[in-house]
Amino acid sequence: MKLALIAGCVAGRRACRLLSEALHRCGSTVTLIGPAPDEAAAEPDWLPLPLPQLAASELLDHVDAVGVFLDGESLRQFRRIHGQAAALRGRSPRPLFSGPFRPLYGDALAADLLPRLGVDLLCLQGEAQLAELNWLVQGTPQAQQACEAIGLWCLPTAPIGHSISQEPLLVVLDQPEIPPSPFANGVLYERLCAVARASPHWQVRLQCDQPLPPDPQQWPQTSLGWHHLQSSRPPANLQLGDHADPLPGLIQARVCMGIGSDWLLPPMVWGKPTVVLGDYGIRTAFNGPLFFGSGVMRRLMDCLPLDALLNSSRPDPTWLAWRGWSIVDGPQRLLRRLEALIG
Amino acid sequence: MTLKLLLVADSDSQLLACQALADAVRALGGAVTVNAIPKPGTPAGVLGALERSGPLWAMSTTRLLADPRLEGFDAIGVYLTGSKLAEFRSTYRLSRQRQRQPLRPLFCGFNGVVLERFEEAIAWRLGYDLICLNGPRDQARLDLLLRHTPFQAQRSVITGLARNRPAPASSKARERILVFAEQVVMPAAPHERRRLVQMLARLARRSPDWQVLIKPRVAAHETTFHAVDTHISATLREALGSPPANLQLSYEPLPQLLQRSRLLATVSSTALFDALDFGCRPVVVADFGLRQDLGTPFFAASGLLRSLDASEDLDALEQGSDADPAWLHWVGYHPEFSAANLLRALTDLAGGVHDSAPLQLSHPGYVVNAADLSTNQLRRGAEAAIRCRDYDEAARLLEIAQLHRPDNRNIGRRLAAVRQRNRLLRRLALLVTPGLRA
């Protein structure tokens, strides 16, 4: 099957690359297409095309189906132009599939799904998202929306080898906008310094969960990394991770920790001890509802000594399965549904 | 058995919810007292209506919990914002234990349709003996949230969205009035609020035989849950300059307006259900699309979505379809769901039909907002720990409180005091730093 996957933002591109690799292993040919974000971020495996031209492009006539993993307004624009261009050419629009490319839940999932309703196939992650979709569209004209759960496709959850660091390493996921004030971030940074000082035989690494500019001067003041650079005497065992990619750090970590980052899910799937910081409670803006049922929420001060985390803090497997972990044949499921769609 | 209920609320929308619940319970033979916690800016009209309909108290939470008359009630309904809800539950239990008084069932609910942050709201409400929900839609979402968690035993009851007694059929013809129920943050963006009033003005110009009345959520000097910079009257001036003569603001109470008007339009207000109660035809403004931030997805299956801009005039808008009965049932507007369900559930609780042990909120690996996570609860806990000379526990609680409120200097000072290792200096520091005022 020949497929095109379209994405715009960093998370969408990463997710599409993962899906493309999985589909390729199933024998499909996949072309990655998307507007080039900027010169520096140009990626060789992406076909750079501006969105309006891409939506109207005859290139899409040569694929069996198109996966559109754009955000709300871009997605609306793509669907409108693609439909109009196909009508002008006297052809049917290509079968479109789409879905959230982050592990969303609650209000965030509903907001993400609304502009996607009406596509030929909605790709969701697990039973939890299917149940939420049914709840959202109950009684509406979209109640019969075609959908398929294809697992946690958007995150690198494939098994990893034994590449953990020799020295115990705690990776703290730094979400540059959470908490949303520089002062609150400063307080959290001080707390993490205290954790590092109380655990001298551990390395504590602040790992940004999304790419930050190479120049630290441009880092947001609401990131832990920014506070670390301002600190005059940070603990010797507190360090910064790779500003561009959280994956290597997570692979090396013995324990992972964060407030509500999507990147907490891969270590959970890999079976690493993971802590969701519960100090802020269940707040929608902090992605709390997603992790409410995870079974690994605890307060920062209850994480000491860090050694105690090594034998605990595993997520509830039923919760993880409900989020999509139990689906191991996601790409095959997707291809089966697309084949049925194309007829 | 006549149930005696106490309802506790503070802000205007919660007081309105209490008013509706009190009326319904009284109509079913129950006795209700409302305690309106004093709060600046609470609309006098809301308090006046409460006073006219039954006993109204105006005590702070502290005074209320010390009042011996509390023992005379069979159950207490609490209609406060999230953190205050959790704090009330916690302090009520503590005060009963201290006074060696039996615990009465506590219940809470929502003051209208829940358009966003439902999970967060539930995380504050867990632990109440009963959570009142609007309809099967909210029940389904609660079940989704609690599935695979230790909180599945949380009790809830569906009490519906009907807030007014059905209006008796009037022989008097309704006036050609469209009431627009304004919401202060839906939409929130100033340019969208201007667009909204411009749409209403165009519709008024196309319908010279009609009157379009914008019903502001609150008057300019009053407050509601959401703080806003620009009152709708200012938006009207900014967007229109001189509005058409048949477009006006109206501060007449909504029930009165709805009893004489033909149409109600709203973006996503609970007033839609008030309109149904009073026999006024509602429409949902579809011009902004289905957007989570506007709460419009709630109405997607209602059959009431209409574009104001695409409507020829108000006569045409009035000819639309009725609300879909299946949707009305799904969201809770159905005779099956009423305050009678609450009274039945409370009677069952009192009769020991169900296990009445409070829901255990502390489980390893789970954090709920309701479990002593409001800043004041944390500070109160810290002060209790200081009195017991457990300074490590006090520091732990103050550290969490500081993460919640990093800008609160008193928390920071108190934390520095309990962290002081020198006994004498610590004692001195505790003397000069402010604890939590009762």
Supply the key terms.
heterodimer; A: 343 residues; alpha/beta; Rossmann fold; seven-stranded parallel beta sheet; globular; B: 438 residues; six-stranded parallel beta sheet; 17 helices
Q: Can you put this structure into words, describing what you see?
A:
The complex is a heterodimer of chains A (343) and B (438). Chain A has 343 residues and is α/β, with parallel strands linked by helices. Chain A has helices spanning 10-25, 51-56, 72-88, 106-113, 127-137, 182-198, 224-230, 247-252, 265-270, 288-291, 317-325, 330-342, and strands spanning 2-7, 29-34, 46-48, 65-69, 96-98, 121-124, 147-149, 169-174, 203-208, 238-240, 255-258, 274-277, 297-298. In chain A, the strands form two sheets. A seven-stranded parallel β-sheet of chain A has the order 3-2-1-4-5-6-7. A six-stranded parallel β-sheet of chain A has the order 10-9-8-11-12-13. In chain A, helix 4 (106-113) packs across helix 5. The longest helix of chain A has 17 residues, at 72-88. Chain A is globular, with a radius of gyration of 21 Å. The two termini of chain A are 12 Å apart. The model of chain A has no long low-confidence stretch (mean pLDDT 93). Chain B has 438 residues and is α/β, with parallel strands linked by helices. Chain B folds into three domains: 4-161 and 334-350, Glycogen Phosphorylase B (Rossmann fold, 3-Layer(aba) Sandwich); 175-321, 3-Layer(aba) Sandwich (Rossmann fold); 375-432, no CATH class. Helix content of chain B is 41%, strand content 13%. In chain B, strands 3-2-1-4-5-6-7 form a seven-stranded parallel β-sheet, sandwiched between helices. A six-stranded parallel β-sheet of chain B has the order 10-9-8-11-12-13. In chain B, strand 4, helix 4 and strand 5 form a beta-alpha-beta unit. Chain B is globular and about 80 Å long.
